[in-house]
Amino acid sequence: MDHFNDQDTLWLFGYGSLIYKADFPYLEKRPASIKNWARRFWQGSHDHRGTPENPGRVVTLIQESEMICHGMAYRITPDELRHLDYREKNGYLRCVTEIAFEGGDSLEGLIYIADHDNAAFLGELPEEAIARQISRASGPSGSNTDYVIELANALRSMNKIDDHVFLIEKYLLE
Ligand code: BEZ
């Protein structure tokens, strides 16, 4: 929790809705990636894109050797973490990892991950079954399908490929 306490600013890596919607003040943003992490729709959402009766699915990061997850990094002040900790309260924890910026430089930054021992974790399913669940879910932040499509569009607009996200999007569009 106090890893960046001696810094005036730190980099936060966004890999879900943060790629296209950063609703917090930031000083700088840069396309970036993290290695040995895979983006997966394995986290349940009963407070944003679903309800307790009908949870949706949102992304988390799973450690997977050699996988690259593309996203957007934001330079923020540590004060912003309080707001983000609250927003991501449904099972996400802060984790420190190496962020590689497009352009070649890299440094230690922060990711939020929801791992398998949080209460809302739903885990692995074939993409078609994930899409079926997502197609039926919506919550206070909107429809779960829109979340997938906006994320896929944001990745395409950065010229990035994510087979897991694009396959779920394909099933949803079908
Ligand atoms: C993101 O959009 O990058 C994000 C996903 C889960 C928790 C916090 C941020």
Q: Helix-strand pattern, N to C?
A: EEEHEEHEEHH
Strand content: 35-45%
β-strand number: 7
**Helix- and strand-based class?**
alpha+beta
Residue ranges: pLDDT <50 for 5 or more in a row? none
**What is the helix tally?**
4
Ligands and ions found: benzoic acid
- The first-to-last residue Cα distance is 43 Å
Radius of gyration: 15 Å
Could you please describe the fold and organization of this structure?
This protein has 4 helices and 7 strands; from the N terminus they run βββαββαββαα. It has helices at residues 80-87, 127-135, 144-157, 163-173, and strands spanning 10-14, 28-45, 56-76, 93-101, 106-113, 138-139, 142-143. It has one domain: Gamma-glutamyl cyclotransferase-like (Hypothetical upf0131 protein ytfp, Roll). Helix content is 24%, strand content 37%. Strand 4 and strand 5 (106-113) form a beta hairpin. By secondary structure, the chain is α+β, with helices and mostly antiparallel strands. Strands 1-3-2-4-5 form a 5-stranded antiparallel sheet. Helix 2 crosses helix 4 (163-173) and helix 3 crosses helix 4 (163-173). The chain is globular and about 45 Å long. It binds benzoic acid. Benzoic acid binds at residues 14-18, 59, 88, 92, 112.
Question: Could you write a compact summary of the structure shown?
Answer:
The chain has 174 residues and is an alpha+beta fold. It is 24% helix and 37% strand.
